[in-house]
Amino acid sequence: MAEQGAPALSLPEDWPAHPNPILALNGMGTFDWDLDAGLVHMDAQAHRIFDLTPEENDGRPQTVGERLLRSERERLDALVARTMKEGRQNYGTYVRLRRRDGGLRWAHVQGYIQRDEAGRPRRIIGILRDASEELGDIAARRERAAQAVARRRQTNVVEAATAALAHARTVQDVIDVVKDSHGLALLGSKSLVLGLVEAGRIRLVAEGPDGSSVPGTSVTRIDDPYPMSEAVRTLSPCFIESPEEFAERYPILWPHITGLDITAAAYLPLIAQARPIGGMGLLYSDRRGFTLEERNVLIALGSSIAQSLQRAMLYEQEKDLAQGLQQAMLPRTIPSVPGADVAVRYRSGYAGGSLGRDIGGDWYDLIPLPGGRIGAVIGDVQGHDTHAAAVMGQLRIVLRAYAAEGHAPATVMARASVFLHELDTDRFATCLYAEADLSTGVVQLVRAGHIDPLVRYDDGTCRRIAVDGGLPLGLSAEFGSLDYPVGTMELDPGQCLVLCTDGLVEEPGADLDDGIRALARSVAAGPDDVGDLADRLIAMAEARGGDDDVALLVLRRQVPAERQPVGRLQRYVAPGDPEALARTRHMIRTALRDWGIQKDSYEVELVADELITNVLMHTEGAAIVTLRVLGGPDRRLRIEVEDSSSALPRRRDPGEQGVSGRGLLLVDRLTDVWGVEARGGGKCVWCEFAVPEES
Predict the structure, then answer these.
(1) What are phi and psi of 293, to 5 degrees?
(2) pLDDT of residue 520
């Protein structure tokens, strides 16, 4: 307030006796302080500023100084003394004085020090003016500026909090924003508590800093005598403007927070769709009361938090429903498969904040089949919503049913496509079906618009298996194309078959083939254990992110602990599969070679071919072929062909021109013994060959 750089006064020696009338016209008074005599002369205007009468002023500086506040008098004396000591001529400052009625008034004092020839101060002459209005305007401007800064700060806090809340997807995300030290803390609160309404109670879900909540209030009733309960109960904010008010209104709570040095508090109801979903309390230690603007800012902030909380609650409810539906549609367990290690994984894609999109139509399945075979399925229904999941569930069930009935892989896929088309849905699906005979390693593959499978070999390399495919399920029936080519490969012991949906290989802006090659490199470099390999591939998908689901199935054919001299193989032969007989003959040749049986396999293949053909032609069902070596004194090779018909085979005389009826004749001529056995709902035709001892 001191104005030591005030402009110098230049007044005549007789100025106190002849004051300038212009000064009086401008409300300024004058004084003349004779330092030698210790007397102060003041004109009439100066008396009015100091609220003194001429009679009350005895001319002593102490009498005039009594009007000044003690602190102001000490400060003015120090300023005058310092000005004299430093040899300066002018000083100026604002001082507060107390009027006759006890009120305060601001005055401005500007003095000029006159010295003698030796430089000794002899006289101070100066000007006085009432500065109350001036400083009032300055104070008002400063207050308005401070309020503007506070409004900007509070508005910035609300905007920053609203922006952060816009990205919050879960209730925990909202809590993290509320507790952020760079967020609500800028409002000046010392601590905060946040509670959610649950079944007529308020459960605290956040506090800041930790330990700032009152013990025993983690769960309270809405009708309890607490400020947050009152705010939730009345749907109105509760502003507490002083410690005295806090203690009077909430005597139960106040003793527990006195150690926090709380001077004011604001408790806000969190309202969404006209119902309370929670409450928030902000406690302050450096303020008393709230302005109207501060209240409005806090109410707006509470509304923003409430909307975000409701959105997060709805999202979590939708997510729980979606995940429950997804888990219900996927296989609950994967059956144990003798001769194979299997791992399956499912990853729900991130949906960029959209509710209900953390679910999709990706699925996997493993189907036990007759004859010791298994069917592995991977598929993806178009879309990311509950409808896609519902279609997926139906499609998975019918695929399992068609495969378990014994249909050929191409037939399974074609019938599934017709089913999806007849559902009268606008969705289509891609699918890959692999039917594996683990005894021989033969795998039949059918692809409906899906990505190709991968195989990892014994040497650690991995490559894509190109499979000719048909249209996606649902589209093939629509366009009248139900032709699904069947690809065949052999999976040797120790090799892995990897089936996945495109969420594991697709990246925005990247080529699909590049993604498949990258996946092949990851599979090649992955661990041998199928579970560890599946975990690693899913972890890579998690790290990459993305909003697409991932379904993964890894199947590894086990390596036998040791080679068995006596073997047994079984194969399922479906009707309508033109290549089934060829694959069965291949199985027989491979088995005889692996077992070290020194016998021409042609006769064995021919007999098996005849028995299987009889089943396919005369029973309209599938055949189960079992090939095994019987030990004992006389080693024998036994072939069994089972079917579901109880009708026994009849030997016929084909005649010279007959084209059929010679099958059992060949069996009788080429085998050492043959016969028929009843098997529950069907029968088994068997035959045996003598096997020479190994040389």
Answers:
(1) -65, -40
(2) 93
